[in-house]
Amino acid sequence: MPDCKRNLIGGEWVETGAFSENRNPANPDEVIGLYARAGADDLSRAVAAARAAQPGWAAASPQLRSDVLRRAGDLLLARNDEIGRLLAREEGKTLPEARGEALRAAQLFHFFSGEALRNPGEKLNSIRDGVEVEVTREPLGVVGLITPWNFPIAIPAWKAAPALAAGNAVILKPADLTPGCAHLLAEILVEAGCPAGVFNLVMGSGSVIGQALVDHPDVAAISFTGSERVGRGIAVGCAQGLKKVQLEMGGKNPMVVLDDADLDVAVDACLNGAFFSTGQRCTASSRLIVTAGIHDAFVARMQQAMATLKIGDPLLDGVQIGPVVSEAQLAGNLDYVRLAGEEGCEVIGGEALDRPGHFQAPALFLNANNQMRSSREEIFGPCASVIRVADFDEALAVANDTAYGLSSGICTTSLKHATAFRRASKSGMVMVNLPTAGVDYHVPFGGRGASSLGGREQGRMAMDFYTAVKTAYVQAG
């Protein structure tokens, strides 16, 4: 029987009595492991443990917090191959992508080990004689982290590392589909010397554990990454509880290709952005907005490039696209492929592959327009609409005509158009001659509109969400 992995509550690996199977999407008959499913009572115990541990963690030397995070980063580096292989097996990323994500988790912990030592404040002169003003940042207390399945080690890292660096205690609720990487992260933080109760792992269903985190009066803040539908519900719950909330949700990201684009650059950027990681990225390029003069050549080159993509077991050398994460996700993708055809698109690819596992061929929806549901709703699979436009002005208008605003891109050799797009794009991140997916860990991540709410993630700005500002006035003498 596979190992049974338990929840971490108050420094103890806790038996909860119920477990779920973690299966390999490339080979659904393979059970990777059994992982505990907690209930609301388990979550309450975790909150109590976190609340008890947090004051000591906050009062400790920032060097202690820095050292714990640095050691965690070192351990993540040392176990990169192990984590990468587990990630590839439970989520379906190719092994190079999975190892890259594990490396990103290590980099995040190393970055925030430095930020633990840099808690900036201000000392100002008051407008009143003899009064000094000091502005400082303090931890919030207990924070709940709810993370998705598509980046099962990087997103827990980019939430937990700044939260811990700021002196908070953490409760991590990972996605049901990918608990293995989160469990490994918990093991690593224990080995790195994180005090009991400061980091807690509570695995279970979102409707039970996620809701209990939102509702619990002793949880000061929630950071969530996932669907817009769930995020909106969390926002309402946090507002009712007067909790701080941070949401990273969906995207329907545009990639504009202008007539003057380098065709090789454009095809590479769109192929990567639309189809790598099986399109399972909130930053994926799902609307390819192409001006008329280059449209036909671009489509022909994209079809040629798609035909060469190697789809298969993500652990095998040379594979570029792995499986869709689950049978349910694949079924949803195929529904959108059918919908695109019904809406009048010429569908290139997109079929389920006749082999074991949840494999799907990448899909282009040709002759699309921006009012189709397949062009407006997030699919979260290897599917991209190709929308023909007349010129830059129409391309920009179509790119901005969306409820979302996470990432956008443009392929052009024109400095004028690149600059105009950067300034006018209504998104949180803009890429020029680069895929819309792919970001650095030391700069802010986030979007606008239905994509994001609350403070930015990653980089120094991440510390803003996990801290509260205090302004102190002192009468001297």
Automatic annotation (TrEMBL):
Entry keyword Coiled coil: no
Source species, domain of life: Bacteria
Entry-linked Gene3D superfamilies: Aldehyde Dehydrogenase, Chain A, domain 1, Aldehyde Dehydrogenase, Chain A, domain 2
Residues of the Aldehyde dehydrogenase domain: 19-471
Protein family (similarity comment): Belongs to the aldehyde dehydrogenase family.
Swiss-Prot/TrEMBL keywords: Oxidoreductase
Species of the source: Paracoccus seriniphilus
Listed name of the protein: Aldehyde dehydrogenase (NAD+)
GO molecular function: oxidoreductase activity, acting on the aldehyde or oxo group of donors, NAD or NADP as acceptor
Active-site residue numbers: 248
